[in-house]
User: Fold this.
Amino acid sequence: MALTQIIIAAGVLGLFALLGGMLLLLIRGRQRDTRLADEARRVAEARATSLEQTIAQLVGAQSEIKGQVSTLSEAHINAQARTMKVLEERFDGISGKMNVSLTESAEKTAKSLGELTNRLSVIDEAQKNITELSGQVVGLQHILDNKQARGAFGEIQMEDIFRNALPPSAYSFQSTLSNGKRADGVILLPNPPGPIVVDSKFPLEPYRALRDAEDEAALAQARRDFKQAVKKHIKDISEKYIITGETAESALMFLPSEAVYAELHANFVDLVEDSYRARVWIVSPTTLMATLNTVRAVLKDVAMREQAHLIQIQVGKMMGDVERLHKRVGNLQKHFSQAEGDLRDITTSAEKVLRHGEKIDEVQLEATTPEVVSDTISLKTPAAP
Assistant:
């Protein structure tokens, strides 16, 4: 549409320029020659007529172009409306899908947040447990730093193992021996082997120094101190808690730590051999539990042996009862045999009685006839006087 207007405007301008040139020629021709002026007038009129025709054609073309532009504009408007409708429909579909997707995303997000909240709660609880455990570890460290408290800790652990593995009659705590020494725990076994003493006090300071050694010199010194302390402890247990005629020929040295037990057997085999020679058996919580389970089996076997004579007495009494029962069954069988003979005799007698009864019935039936009755009466009735 804009191009058409430009073309029309260019034509009009061209016409105006042409008219101007013609008028200028007419003015000049009029000044020169009247004839030329007339001739120019005729030419101008002819050209003006032609120009009017051209302008009329241009106006018609402009009207036609305007109609085409209106048609194109309406078509464009209709196409734009259809496009907008399609876009609106697609937008509605996309909007619905986006709403559904956003709803699902919101639900998934809420679910994820809920799970995250639960996990955070679990993490908080675990953190609290870790904090409590840290406090307990610190408390345990304080206990192990104090010799007296550490001894009490070992005794409590040993007592718990005793209570879990043995009946109350099979052990005692803090028993005083004939030499005046007090034993932490005693396994009450019959002779042999006799009561076994268990010591729960262990020198932990040399072991900690061994673990904390930072160089070779400190490590060597810690190994010497640890070896000396353990050897002295083995000797003390052997001298204090092995009493001939009162206790068993051996004693137990209880270590409340599996790590110390592993260290002794891994790196101090000579100390373990010294304990064997001194008849002091080194036990950890695990091996003490296994030992006590074996002791429980031994105690059960001893109790069964102690009750064996009672079982034998009861078995003897039962055999006497069985013999008497057998005799009485024989007597009863005799009674049954005699009763069976009596029953046979009774049956025979009953059969004889029945036969006699049948004969009596036959006699009575014969007596019921008239002739027999009259004869009978004549025989038994006396004559009239």
In short: The first helix runs from residue 2 to 32. Residues 137-145, 370-385 have pLDDT under 50 and may be disordered. The first strand starts at residue 171 and ends at 176.
